[in-house]
Amino acid sequence: MLSQISLPLQSGSSIRLQGDYHGTAADFCELSRLLSGTWGAPEACPHCRTVEVIPAAAVTVYESRRVRIACDVTAKVYYHAVKDHNLLTDPEFGVFVWHGVVLAAASAALLRGENVLLLHGAMLERDGEALLLCGESGVGKSTTSCRWQACGNRAFSDDMILLEFIDGEVLAHRLPTWSACRAGGTAGKSYPFAPPLRVKNLLALGRSDDGEKIIPLPEADFLAQLYHCVCFHYEPMLKKLPEAERYAAAETMYRSFLKLAKIFPPQALLAALDGNLTETLRGFL
After folding, report:
1. 138 vs 140: CA distance, rounded Å
2. Residues contacting 254, CB < 8 A, separation 6+
3. Fewest beta carbons less than 10 Å away: which of 69, 168, 273, 281?
4. How far apart are CA 210 and CA 51, in angstroms?
């Protein structure tokens, strides 16, 4: 039984996920609820399909003991297959499947030239606007998100965020993350994909031992951190593609990186656990 979720973009197109793990922990029913997605007819060409057998012509881009992900470079469609269907009874593994499918779909959108970018970062929300925090894994994005929520605000996306570039503005769509969903399950959670939030600011994230603050950052340091977060999720989905597709995707990704670098000045939030985050971010969000 095939099901398809359509995630609408502001540009008028959409990202489509198609699955056939009906009745398992990876059933797209729950993912659709989390994303407030719209069910669509499976005739529309998907960005990523979950399948039992991957077409022989597709190029394998990621493989582990549990899953295989491959890309049909002609159709610009990714395929996701679980090797052992007994794993589909595990709710944590189901979330892992969703994470891989959404990631692959975002990579397909990049190959198709969609004006979107998957960013590794945390998104703090307030009054329909967002502040993005970029940094390497372990620097404190999830901790800072939890601190922001403790202040009575929203911050559900702490790993991957889908950005759209529309008329000189950056819009951010929430996406569920494997780490967040597997930690506390999916009950009561929501990551409404639409409408997106306008990104008011983007900051690099670091740690401080002498008080929480926002500081100017040397441009080279800021760009290096931002570029790392732009490439982070895409690398396993793109590095094994044929050269022409790999370079085309890299060029599209680089253009988006330059747009972000042009819009947002090089600044960093140096976070401290004993800081007042609401006060620190006053004027920034």
Report:
1. 5
2. none
3. 168
4. 52
What whole-number distance in Å separates Cα of residue 180 and Cα of residue 190?
11
What is d(CA 17, CA 8) in angstroms, rounded to the nearest whole number? Answer: 12
3-class DSSP state for residue 28?
helix
On whether the pTM is more than 0.70, the answer is yes
Q: How far is CA 89 from CA 72, 85, 231, in A?
A: 28, 8, 32
Tokens of 23: 């009745």
Tell me the pLDDT tens digit for each residue of 217-249.
999 999 999 999 999 999 988 989 999 999 999
Nearest to 211 by CA among 274, 168, 121: 274
The whole-number average pLDDT for the span 148-156 is 89
Q: How far apart are CA 90 and CA 108, in angstroms?
A: 27
What distance in Å separates the CA atoms of residue 196 and residue 207, rounded to the nearest whole number?
29
What type of residue sits at position 219?
E
Q: Are 201 and 159 in contact, with CB atoms under 8 Å apart?
A: no
* Residues across the chain: 285
Residue 39's SS3 state is: strand
Judge residue 238's burial from the number of C-beta atoms within 10 Å of its C-beta, 0-12 exposed, 13-18 middle, 19 or more buried: buried
User: For residue range 84-124, what is the model confidence (pLDDT) as tens digits?
Assistant: 999 999 988 999 999 999 999 999 999 998 889 999 999 99
